[in-house]
C-alpha cells in the first residue's frame, strides 16, 4: 500500500490479460501471415495472443512475436534473436541486482560494439517494453486513508470521499484551483493505493509450464506414502477435507493454498518509520479491508465449476479449484488475521478462556503456567502439591475447539473498520481484553469452519523466541534474564526460598546460583539436540512426544522462575497436536517468507515510491521467469549455481599422485568390487557363482563366496576373450584396470566432498567418515561405520561411468564393526557406484572418530562386510 502513489510513466505498463489456454487442436500453429510458430516460445506467444482479451494487448503480443523472429543484427550467423537476447540481458540484470541506470549504460555500450543496424534496445525502458506484453494483470485499487473501505465495486468505485469517515479519496494540491473552463483537468493523486496481484491468471500461467503442471500433482502421484508424516497431505486436516468435500479431492491438480502475511521495511534500515503492506503494525484488524479482493478470488476458485485452465502436461483443459488450507504468520499477525486476542490473560489461541495466566508484579508481565493439567490422568506429579503452591492439580487439559465452535463465538460480532475516532472495538470483559476482536473475513469461506487448525503456530518465531528465552536464562548468550525482578516475584509468590534475593549493604542484593546453571559440556549437548531435528516424523511417536514436551514444561516450573514462562513457552504444549493435523512444521513456517522479504527489498530503486518499485520489479521478474523456461541454457532467477556444478560426477581436488602397483590381493579385491557394482557384469556374476556351486558341491557358503571373489575376474576375462559382439564398455571392464593408479587426499562426487583421515586432521569440517548398510545372504542388514584411509582412481581406459569417460574412483576405509571393534584390515569400495543419502549419521561409541558422513548403501549379497 502506498500513501502517495502516482502513475510512473517511465516504466511501461504490462498488457492486462487473464492467461491463455494453449493449442488444443494439436495442429501446427501459424500466425495471421502464415508464418510457422512451431517452436515452444513462438507457440506460447501465439497462444497468448489468441487468448488476449483486448485488441491493444493482442497488437503488443503480435509485435513481441515479430521480435522473436527478428535477428539481432543483419547476417547474424549464431541465430540470436531480438527478443531472446533482450530476455537474457534482463535476466542477467535481475539476477545481479543491477540498477536501471547501470543496465542502460551497458546496453548502450554493447549496442555500439555490435554491427550497425542491430536491434538491441538502447535503454532499460525499451528493453522492458519489448517483454511487457506478457505481464499479468496488476490492479491498483484506491483505499480510504483511514482503512475504512476500498474504492471498488458498484457501491464505492465512483465515490470522491469515504462514506464512513468522510476522508477525501484524492489529495488536494496546494496550487489546485479546481476545474477551470478551457483548461485540462490535472491528474489527481489518490490518498492511498493498494497493489493487488490477482491469483487466477497466475495459476493459469503456472499450469502453462509443463514442469510446473507435473509437479502440481506430485503429492498424489509421486509422494512416498509409508505412513510417515513428511507432507501436509499426511496430516489429518488434509484427509478430513478430502472426506468432507470428495469432489475437491478427486482431482490432484486442485490447489491447497497457505497464506503468509508480514510487513517489511523496504529501505533495509532498523528504523520502523515506514513499513510496506501488509504492515500489520499499522493495519491491525483493518487488514480485512485489504483482503477482500483475495477472498473474492478464493470464493470463485472454490465453486464447483472452478475456473477453466489449460494443463500443458496432460494437454487438456480442466476446471481448477482451490482452497486456503492454513495461514502462516508471526504471533502478532496471527491475531490480526484471526481476530482473536493473543496477549493479556487469554493469549493462548488454543486454550482461549481456559488459559492459565497470572500477572507478575515486579517483572510487569503476564505469564502462563499450570502445565500439570496437560499430563495424563492420574500422573504422580499431579498429586505433588508441595512443589506447586502446596496444591494438587487434577484438572483435565483444555478441550480442542473445532472450527464450528469458534465460528459460533464470532458470527454475531459487529466491528466497524477504521482508524481514529468512530471505530467500534469489541467491549472488554471484566477489565480484561476481549477474547475476540472481530469476525474475521476468513469465515466467509464456505470451508473455513471445517478446518481443525485455521492459523498455524509459526515455528520459526517460536523457536527463535524460545531459544533466546532459554539461553538467556541459562547464560549462554545475550541478556541475563535471571534478574532481581524475577527473584522478587519468587519471593512475592513464596516459591523457591533458596533463590530469594538477599539484601546487603548500600541497597545491593545477592542472588544465589540457580540449579539451571549449565556447564560447557551441557550447553554443547543442548545445541546438538537442536541440530538433530528431522523433517520426517513417525505419527506413532506423537503421543510420546507430547508427553515429553509437557513433562519438560512441568519440570521447568520446578526450577525456573515464573518470568521464564512467556506465551512462546506455553505454545510448545500445542505444537505436537498441530504437527499431527497439518504435517511437518518445516512446510508451514515463516522461514521461506522472511527470506523472500529480502528479495523484495532489492526491488526498491526509488525510495520515494517503494511500493511501486516492488510491484514493477516483481512484474518484470515474473515475465522473465516464465520466458526463461522456453530458452535453453538460462537458469531461473534465484536458483543459485551449486559449487559442484559441472563436477558432480567425479573430480579429485587435493593431493594428486600417480603410483605404480602390482596385482596383489587388495588390488584384485578392488577390481572385483568395481565389477560387482556394474549392471553390465551382473548376469556374469550370477553365472559364475552358479558354476562355482555346481563344481564344489558340499562346500560352505563362505568358502563358495571367497572362491567366487578370488577367481571371478580371471574367469570373466577368459570367458569374454575374442567375443566381438559384447558391449565395448564390458570388454574394457573385463580386461581390467591399468597398473598406474592416481591417489587423492580429497575427492568430489555426486555433490559430496570426501577427504582422507589425514586430510581431515587439517580441516575444520569432517569429510572422511562414511556408513555402509550391507545386506548378507540371510537378508539381514549390517551397518558399518568407517573412516577413509585412501582415495584412488582406477584407469579402465574409455569406460564411461557417468557423463564423462574417466577412471573409476574407490576408497580404502577403516571400518568399525558391530560390537565396537575396529577392523584389523581395510577393504576398498568404489565411490561412484554407491547411492548416497543425505542423512547425517553419528556413532555414539566414538564420536571423535566416527562423527558424521554420507550414508552409503550396497545391496549385493556378495559384498556383505565381514572380517577377513
Automatic annotation (TrEMBL):
Chain intervals with Acidic residues compositional bias: 1-11
Task: Supply the source organism for this entry.
Answer: Oryza sativa subsp. japonica (Rice)
Q: Which residues form the DUF4218 domain?
A: 535-635
The record's Pfam families line, in alphabetical order, gives: DUF4218, Transposase_21
Stored InterPro entries: DUF4218, Transposase_21
Q: Which residues form a coiled coil?
A: none
In terms of PANTHER family, this protein maps to:
OS08G0208400 PROTEIN, TRANSPOSASE
Mind telling me what this protein is named? Answer: Transposon protein, putative, CACTA, En/Spm sub-class
Using the UniProt annotation, give all residue ranges assigned to the region (Disordered).
Answer: 1-43
Amino acid at each position: 500500500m502506498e500513501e502517495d502513489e502516482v502513475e510512473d510513466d517511465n516504466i511501461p505498463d504490462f498488457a492486462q490479460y487473464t492467461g491463455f489456454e494453449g493449442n488444443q487442436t494439436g495442429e501446427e500453429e501459424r500466425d495471421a501471415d502464415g508464418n510457422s510458430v512451431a517452436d515452444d516460445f513462438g507457440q506460447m506467444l501465439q497462444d497468448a495472443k489468441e487468448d488476449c482479451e483486448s485488441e491493444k494487448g493482442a497488437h503488443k503480443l503480435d509485435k513481441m512475436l515479430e521480435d522473436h523472429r527478428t535477428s539481432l543484427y543483419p547476417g547474424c550467423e549464431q541465430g540470436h534473436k531480438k527478443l531472446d537476447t533482450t530476455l537474457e540481458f534482463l535476466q542477467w540484470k535481475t539476477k545481479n541486482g543491477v540498477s536501471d541506470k547501470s543496465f542502460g549504460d551497458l546496453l548502450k555500450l554493447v549496442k555500439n560494439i555490435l554491427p550497425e543496424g542491430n536491434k538491441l534496445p538502447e535503454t532499460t525502458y525499451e528493453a522492458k517494453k519489448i517483454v511487457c506484453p506478457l505481464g499479468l494483470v496488476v490492479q491498483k485499487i484506491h483505499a480510504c486513508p483511514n482503512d475504512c473501505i476500498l474504492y471498488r465495486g458498484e457501491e464505492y468505485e465512483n465515490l470522491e470521499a469515504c462514506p464512513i469517515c468522510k476522508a477525501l479519496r484524492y489529495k488536494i494540491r496546494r496550487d489546485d484551483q479546481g476545474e477551470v473552463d478551457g483548461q485540462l483537468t490535472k491528474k489527481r493523486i489518490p490518498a492511498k493505493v493498494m497493489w493487488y496481484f490477482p491469483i487466477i491468471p497466475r495459476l493459469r500461467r503456472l499450469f502453462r509450464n509443463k514442469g510446473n503442471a507435473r509437479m502440481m500433482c506430485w503429492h498424489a502421484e509421486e509422494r512416498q506414502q509409508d505412513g510417515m508424516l513428511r507432507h501436509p497431505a499426511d496430516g489429518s486436516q488434509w484427509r478430513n477435507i478430502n472426506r468432507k468435500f470428495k469432489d475437491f479431492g478427486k482431482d490432484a491438480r486442485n490447489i491447497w493454498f497457505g497464506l503468509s502475511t508480514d510487513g517489511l521495511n523496504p529501505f533495509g534500515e532498523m528504523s520502523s518509520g515506514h513499513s510496506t503492506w501488509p504492515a500489520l503494525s499499522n493495519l491491525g484488524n483493518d487488514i480485512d479491508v485489504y483482503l477482500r479482493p483475495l477472498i473474492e478470488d478464493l470464493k470463485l476458485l472454490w465453486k464447483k465449476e472452478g475456473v477453466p485452465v489449460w494443463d500443458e502436461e496432460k494437454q487438456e483443459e480442466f476446471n481448477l479449484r482451490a482452497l486456503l488450507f492454513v495461514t502462516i504468520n508471526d504471533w502478532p499477525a496471527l491475531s490480526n488475521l484471526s481476530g482473536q486476542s493473543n496477549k493479556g490473560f487469554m493469549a493462548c489461541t488454543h486454550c482461549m478462556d481456559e488459559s492459565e495466566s497470572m500477572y507478575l508484579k515486579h517483572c510487569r508481565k503476564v505469564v502462563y503456567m499450570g502445565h500439570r493439567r496437560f499430563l495424563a490422568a492420574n500422573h504422580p506429579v499431579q498429586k505433588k502439591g508441595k512443589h506447586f503452591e502446596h496444591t494438587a492439580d487434577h484438572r483435565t487439559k483444555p478441550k480442542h475447539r473445532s472450527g464450528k465452535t469458534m465460528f459460533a463465538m464470532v458470527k454475531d460480532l459487529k466491528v466497524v473498520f477504521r482508524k481514529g475516532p468512530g471505530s467500534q472495538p469489541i467491549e472488554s470483559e471484566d477489565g480484561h481484553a476481549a477474547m475476540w476482536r472481530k469476525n474475521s473475513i476468513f469465515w466467509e469461506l464456505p470451508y473455513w469452519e471445517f478446518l481443525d487448525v485455521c492459523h498455524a503456530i509459526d515455528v520459526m518465531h517460536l523457536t527463535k523466541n524460545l531459544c533466546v528465552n532459554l539461553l538467556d536464562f541459562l547464560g549462554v548468550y545475550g541478556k541475563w534474564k535471571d534478574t532481581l525482578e524475577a527473584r522478587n516475584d519468587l519471593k512475592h509468590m513464596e516459591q523457591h526460598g533458596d533463590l530469594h534475593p538477599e539484601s546487603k549493604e548500600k541497597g545491593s542484593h545477592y542472588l544465589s546460583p540457580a540449579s539451571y546453571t549449565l556447564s560447557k559440556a551441557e550447553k554443547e549437548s543442548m545445541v546438538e539436540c537442536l541440530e538433530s531435528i528431522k523433517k520426517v516424523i513417525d505419527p506413532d511417536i506423537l503421543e510420546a512426544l507430547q508427553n515429553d514436551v509437557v513433562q519438560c514444561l512441568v519440570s521447568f516450573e520446578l526450577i525456573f522462575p515464573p518470568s521464564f514462562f512467556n506465551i512462546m513457552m506455553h505454545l510448545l504444549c500445542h505444537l505436537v497436536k498441530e504437527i499431527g493435523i497439518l504435517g511437518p512444521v518445516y512446510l508451514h513456517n515463516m522461514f521461506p517468507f522472511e527470506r523472500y522479504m529480502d528479495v523484495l527489498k532489492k526491488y526498491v530503486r526509488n525510495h520515494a515510491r517503494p511500493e511501486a518499485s516492488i510491484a514493477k520489479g516483481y512484474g518484470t521478474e515474473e515475465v522473465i521467469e516464465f520466458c526463461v523456461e522456453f530458452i535453453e541454457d538460462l537458469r531461473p532467477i534465484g536458483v543459485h549455481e551449486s559449487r559442484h556444478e559441472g563436477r558432480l560426477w567425479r573430480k579429485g581436488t587435493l593431493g594428486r599422485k600417480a603410483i605404480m602397483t602390482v596385482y596383489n590381493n587388495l588390488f584384485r579385491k578392488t577390481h572385483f568390487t568395481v565389477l560387482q557394482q556394474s549392471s553390465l557384469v551382473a548376469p556374469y556374476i550370477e553365472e559364475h557363482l552358479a558354476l562355482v556351486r555346481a563344481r564344489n558341491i558340499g562346500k560352505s557358503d563362505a568358502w563358495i563366496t571367497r572362491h567366487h571373489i578370488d577367481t571371478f575376474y580371471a574367469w570373466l576375462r577368459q570367458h569374454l576373450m575374442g567375443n566381438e559382439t559384447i558391449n565395448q564398455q564390458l570388454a574394457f571392464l573385463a580386461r581390467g584396470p591399468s597398473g598406474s593408479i592416481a591417489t587423492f587426499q580429497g575427492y568430489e562426487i555426486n555433490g559430496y566432498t570426501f577427504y582422507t583421515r589425514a586430510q581431515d586432521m587439517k580441516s575444520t569440517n569432517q569429510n572422511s567418515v562414511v556408513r555402509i548398510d550391507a545386506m548378507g545372504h540371510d537378508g539381514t542388514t549390517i551397518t558399518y561405520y568407517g573412516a577413509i584411509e585412501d582415495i584412488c582412481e582406477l584407469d579402465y581406459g574409455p569406460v564411461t561411468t557417468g557423463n564423462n569417460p574417466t577412471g573409476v574412483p574407490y576408497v580404502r576405509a577403516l571400518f568399525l564393526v558391530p560390537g565396537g571393534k575396529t577392523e584389523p584390515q581395510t577393504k576398498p569400495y568404489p565411490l561412484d557406484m554407491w547411492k548416497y543419502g543425505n542423512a547425517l549419521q553419528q556413532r555414539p561409541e566414538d564420536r571423535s572418530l566416527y562423527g558424521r558422513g554420507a550414508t552409503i548403501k550396497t545391496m549385493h549379497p556378495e559384498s556383505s562386510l565381514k572380517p577377513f
